[in-house]
Amino acid sequence: MIAIYPGSFDPITLGHIDIIERGCKLFKKVIVAVLRNPSKTSLFTIEKRLNQIRYSTEHLPNVEVASFDGLAVNYAKMRQAKVLIRGLRVLSDFEKELQMAHTNKTLSSEIETVFLATSNEYSFLSSSVVKEIAIFGGSVDHLVPQHIAIDIYKCYDKTQPILNQK
């Protein structure tokens, strides 16, 4: 069975990768689907995010990385996927994601949403948190893969986090 893990992944975090790795154990194929959203200002271009995710998941043979426009449920149907994977960190995520799952069901009754609870060590983690820490000079080395941390520091004109400088 094919599953879609949709998101903006700007940037992809270790929490996202944890969900992808666990999804790979449940499904024959996981397509990490990066949303093209021209109305949203992104830290990284769509091409950069696709490459970052490919590099971060190259150890997973049943992962495909692609981009899409529009509704995730329509993309899932186009790719013949039966499942959307969503990660849940806290109760507020559940409320939002459950509402989205019900909405998706009204759009396509054959697509199911599977919720994976985030591992404890990533329960606070989001792409927004990573960007905010980096903006203010903190280290994101423990929150994202190393190659992405380097890219983030470059975006904010830092070669390393302020906390690690001598």
Describe this protein's structure.
It contains 6 helices and 5 strands; from the N terminus they run E-H-E-H-E-H-E-H-E-H-H. The chain has 166 residues and is an alpha/beta fold. The chain starts with a strand and ends in an 11-residue tail after the last helix. The protein has helices at 14-26, 46-56, 72-78, 91-107, 127-135, 146-155, and strands spanning 2-7, 29-35, 63-68, 83-88, 112-117. The longest helix is centred in the middle third of the chain and has 17 residues, at 91-107. It has a 5-stranded parallel β-sheet, sandwiched between helices. It is globular. It has one domain (2-122): Rossmann fold (3-Layer(aba) Sandwich), CATH 3.40.50.620. The mean pLDDT is 92.
Strand content: 15-25%
Number of strands: 5
CATH H-level superfamily: HUPs
Task: Figure out the total of helices.
Answer: 6
**Which class do the helix and strand fractions yield?**
alpha/beta
Please tell me the overall pLDDT: 92
Query: In the residues, how many domains can be counted?
Result: 1
Globular, elongated, flat, extended or rod-shaped: what is the shape? globular
Element-level helix/strand string? EHEHEHEHEHH
Give the CATH level 1 class: Alpha Beta
Strand order of the largest sheet: 3-2-1-4-5
CATH topology-level name = Rossmann fold
- Segments where pLDDT lies below 50 for 5+ residues? none
In percent, how helical is the residue content?
Answer: 40-55%
